[in-house]
Design goal:
Blueprint lengths: L1 E6 L3 H16 L3 E3 L7 E6 L4 H18 L5 E6 H6 L10 E3 L7 H9 L4 E3 L19 E5 L1 E2 L10 H5 L3 E2 L2 H13 L4 E5 L16 H8 L7 E5 L8 H9 L6 E3 L7 H6 L6 H14 L4 E8 L6 H14 L3 E6 L7 H5 L6 H24 L5 E9 L5 E4 L5 E4 L9 E9 L4 E8 L3 H16 L1
Parallel strand pairs: 1-2, 1-3, 3-4, 4-5, 5-6, 7-10, 10-11, 12-13, 13-14, 17-19
Antiparallel strand pairs: 8-9, 15-16, 15-18, 16-17, 18-19
Helix pairs in contact: 7-8, 11-13
Bound molecules: S-adenosyl-L-homocysteine, iron/sulfur cluster and FE3-S4 cluster (F3S).
Iron/sulfur cluster binds next to α5.
Length: 451
């Protein structure tokens, strides 16, 4: 069968889809980019905000429009599927499955092909292991190391859609990393909603710090990232191991969500503004040239102008490298939905969003100035919409330059010559494996042979 897969949401969902596609291929199906000619359309959904839901329903409309003209099976999985469940069957979806069942996608598709309409949900994640087939889409791969979330931040639907925290055994994670490297992967990102809680539930000394420490010695693995850190779970050991190796990314993504203690408490985040700021100081004092990025929600119930100003002050004080800004969106079933009235008007939310966006832009521009004229080492990733090639440095800074597809997956040095609030632009000065490089290496070995 020809199967089209569309993914919404976070990296976790992206990665789940890659496993699903791998499993489906192994079952003999073909993964296609073209919805019009597909026999089956699978959508992996997100429910984090209303907007994510709306995007999915727009897509569902498009799929159903095509289905009027030809036979097509529609399967929906992921976080919104967990939230909506049977309700999606009445909207024309043929089968609905949860975030903990994607390794069974082969069987689910078989049932749908027999004409069954059904939902399939499990409470526990079924094992995804180093043996599970997966698609590798580039020189970079995501590796989910901890599933679920136990935090229950009052605004967030994720603990309800993804279930309780469950860490994968470290041996199996390492086997997966090694097999990815054998298949040509050079860069990996360890993933978890709270990646720094990795191992806590195993009770055998497993931790993110240990995993990074061991992974950094895997030959052929050149860069290691980890995402997302929960501020109060960052340990000294983790900071030290990040500082210890050139292979480990110098980027901490530490969602702060708000700058006011009153709002942090209502959000049920487990740190104060001061604790968060102390953590940033500690990271910066130990990890040279580290970049810190964050997520912030504006317009949380009860957020006063004064609370919002505290968020602005925090953003100005920390000078984040990147801020993912979101407008509060009430999520049915969460504590905030039950306990607090969504009392900041939409206009006010948008105003706060824009004000913070502008502030962050000017901070970005200032930070980016420090890159001007510098030669930065990146791994080339892909062609951007503006047709330039781009890659990122070890601090997660994106730099675009003139190049070509043959460069993808290679180390490159780019001299930065243009600054914006977003990406940086530069000129390629060195490419791994380039003639120049080989010439130099040859000259070096010749002179050594002669000497
Ligand atoms: N586990 C991560 C992020 C998970 S969701 C963490 O702890 O930060 C990604 C981001 O979506 C969150 O950081 C938050 O900023 C945003 N988000 C989650 N629920 C939201 C809601 N109801 N409204 C607006 N933004 C939300
Ligand atoms: Fe959501 Fe909080 Fe869990 Fe992050 S830590 S996924 S924001 S509940
Ligand atoms: Fe969305 Fe689920 Fe990820 S709600 S952000 S796809 S965990």
């Amino acid at each position: 069968m020809r199967i089209y897969v569309k993914t919404y949401g976070c990296q976790m969902n992206e990665n789940d889809s890659l496993y699903m596609m791998g499993i489906l291929r192994e079952c003999g199906h073909e993964i296609v980019d073209d919805l019009e000619t597909a026999d089956i359309a699978l959508v992996n959904t997100c429910a984090v905000r209303k907007k994510a839901e709306e995007k999915f329903y727009g897509k569902l409309g498009e799929i159903q429009h095509i289905r009027k003209k030809k036979k097509m099976i529609i399967g929906v999985g992921g976080c919104l599927a967990e939230k909506e469940r049977e309700r999606l069957l009445s909207k024309g979806v043929d089968f609905v499955f949860g975030t903990r069942s994607y390794s069974r996608i082969g069987e689910l598709v078989e049932r749908a092909l027999k004409g069954e309409k059904f939902t399939y949900f499990e409470d526990h994640i079924d094992e995804i292991t180093s043996q599970t087939p997966r698609i590798i889409s580039s020189h970079h791969a995501w590796v989910t190391i901890i599933y679920g979330c136990d935090r229950f931040c009052s605004y967030c639907i994720v603990p309800y859609t993804r279930g309780r925290e469950k860490s994968r055994p470290m041996d199996d994670v390492l086997r997966e990393v090694e097999s990815l490297v054998e298949r040509g992967v050079r860069e990996i990102t360890f993933l978890g909603q709270n990646v720094d809680a990795y191992g806590k539930d195993l009770g055998d000394g497993t931790s993110l710090a240990r995993l990074l420490d061991i992974s950094k010695d895997i030959e052929g693995l050149d860069r290691i990232w980890f995402l997302t850190s929960y501020p109060s779970d960052v340990t000294d050991e983790l900071i030290d191991v990040v500082a210890s190796s050139e292979k480990i990314s110098k980027n901490f993504h530490l969602p702060v969500q708000a700058g006011s203690d009153r709002i942090l408490e209502r959000m049920r985040r487990r740190y104060t503004r001061e604790e968060y700021l102390n953590l940033i100081d500690k990271i910066r004092s130990k990890v040279k040239d580290v970049s810190i990025s964050t997520d912030i929600i504006v317009g949380f119930p009860g957020e006063s102008e004064e609370d919002f100003k505290e968020t602005i002050r925090l953003v100005e004080e920390v000078k984040f490298e990147r801020v993912n800004l979101a407008i509060y969106s009430p999520r049915e079933g969460t504590l905030a939905y039950k306990n607090y009235e969504d009392d900041v008007s939409h206009e006010e939310k948008v105003r706060r969003f824009q004000e913070l966006l502008e502030i962050q832009k000017s901070i970005n521009r200032r930070i980016n100035e420090s890159y001007r004229g510098k030669v930065v080492r990146i791994i080339v990733e892909a062609r951007s919409k503006s047709s330039l090639m781009y890659g990122r440095d070890i601090r997660n800074k994106i730099i675009a330059f003139e190049g070509n597809e043959n460069m993808v997956g290679k180390f490159a040095d780019v001299k930065v010559n243009k600054i914006t609030a977003g990406p940086l632009y530069g000129r390629l000065v060195w490419l791994e494996g380039s003639e120049d490089d080989e010439d130099k290496a040859l000259r070096r070995s010749n002179s050594q042979a002669e000497g």
